[in-house]
Amino acid sequence: MQCILVDEGAKFQCRLTRLFEVLLYSVAMSELDFSNDTVLVSGAAAGIGRAIGNRLADAGAQLVLVDFDADGVRQTADTIGSSATALVGDLADGEAIDALVGQAWDKAGPITGLVNCAGIFPNTPMLDVDVDEWTRVLDTNLRAPFLMTQSVAKRMIEADVKGSVVNISSSAATLARPGVPHYGASKAGVQQLTRNMAIELAPHGIRVNAVAPGLIATERVMAKAAGAGKVEHEAKTARIPLGREGQPDEIAGLVLVMLSPLASYCTGSVLLADGGFTLGIPRY
Ligand SMILES: NC(=O)c1ccc[n+]([C@@H]2O[C@H](COP(=O)([O-])OP(=O)(O)OC[C@H]3O[C@@H](n4cnc5c(N)ncnc54)[C@H](O)[C@@H]3O)[C@@H](O)[C@H]2O)c1
């Protein structure tokens, strides 16, 4: 916070404000201590999932990082060090998920947090989407978070672990645009799935929330923006009231808050983090 000092009284007030901020920050940071937690993060080989893994590691968590990009997920785990375990698996394969979660549980002990971040977002006009592409998007973006949460929650309940789940949705869940009929439907599904799972898991002390990012400057998004997706990217950025894309770390911070005791009374919430993208028309 910036202070403009008018006189000594204002100077004193400014110091108090600063002190209050520091106190608030320390309280928040102590509640963002994950040193007693083990968190499973899917999609951690790149982008937002990697940023979430890094932030959780900084906050002291033990991590199990899952992705089908073997090199990428091992690279994330290697950068973090011994507190991270990399597991390679294709989450679009529904039959494989329970075994993968079992492996994570056996390797890293009771899991207290789950972040369902893995996702794909092909851009294909509605009239050209075939059954395979539709199925792959829905299996990855919607069925996998369901099966992952079901599998983790069963183990949490059996081990009497109170935990927290965060699903990564998208502003595309509510804002329609061309080229993403399957993606938009999958992310809208994630939001309602979040609410339904939250109701059933609340009696077990397991909270389920979602974070819905807008346009985030991951490597994949920025590579596309530099090539064939330039016009679309510029059109999207132009309608963001905050005037820029978000950074992966800005989503990771929110995910940590939702996983932590700071959000202890939140379940079934969808937290939008889109720079105002879905508010309406930013200017004429
Ligand atoms: N980047 C954005 O602008 C944006 C905006 C809104 C929502 N999101 C959502 O955030 C999440 C992360 O997106 P990102 O931008 O970081 O993408 P990304 O492509 O950089 O990372 C996604 C990760 O998921 C992994 N993955 C994909 N399919 C998988 C599968 N079947 N099994 C295992 N791993 C798989 C990929 O290998 C990759 O590491 C996604 O759910 C996406 O829909 C992204």
Structure description:
Helix content is about 50%, strand content about 15%. It is of the alpha/beta class and about 280 residues long. The protein has a domain at about 90-95 and about 110-275: NAD(P)-binding Rossmann-like Domain (Rossmann fold, 3-Layer(aba) Sandwich), CATH 3.40.50. It has a seven-stranded parallel beta sheet with strand order 3-2-1-4-5-6-7, sandwiched between helices. Strand 1 (about 40), helix 2 (about 45-60) and strand 2 (about 60-65) form a beta-alpha-beta unit. It is globular. The protein starts with 7 loop residues before the first helix and ends in an 11-residue tail after the last strand. The model is unreliable at about 1-5 (pLDDT under 50). Bound molecules: nicotinamide-adenine-dinucleotide. Nicotinamide-adenine-dinucleotide (NAD) binds near residues 69 and 140.
Question: Would you summarize the structure shown here?
Answer:
By secondary structure, the chain is of the alpha/beta class.
Topology record:
Elements: H1 8-31, E1 38-42, H2 47-58, E2 62-67, H3 70-80, E3 84-88, H4 97-108, E4 113-116, H5 131-158, E5 164-168, H6 181-201, E6 207-213, H7 219-225, H8 230-238, H9 248-259, E7 270-273
Parallel strand pairs: 1-2, 1-4, 2-3, 4-5, 5-6, 6-7
The structure holds nicotinamide-adenine-dinucleotide.
